[in-house]
Amino acid sequence: MLTEEILERLECVSGEYPQYMARCPSHNDRRPSLSIRDEKDKTLIHCFAGCEAKDIMEAIGLSLKDLYK
Questions:
Q1: Could you give the CA distance from residue 1 to residue 41 in angstroms, rounded to a whole number?
Q2: What is the pTM of this model?
Q3: Is the pLDDT higher at 32 or at 2?
């Protein structure tokens, strides 16, 4: 499952299925601002500080396409 793979690459993960929060790897995040949500056939990510999904995925070594597997 992609959501699990993403969560393993993040810091300060909290929450439970299907909604999680973590530090955003795309900026110097002191408090978790990255939302990760598991949907049926995709994973949704949103940084409340405004980072782009592409930048977040690149920061953890994945691509934007990986969100839709």
A1: 10
A2: 0.89
A3: 32
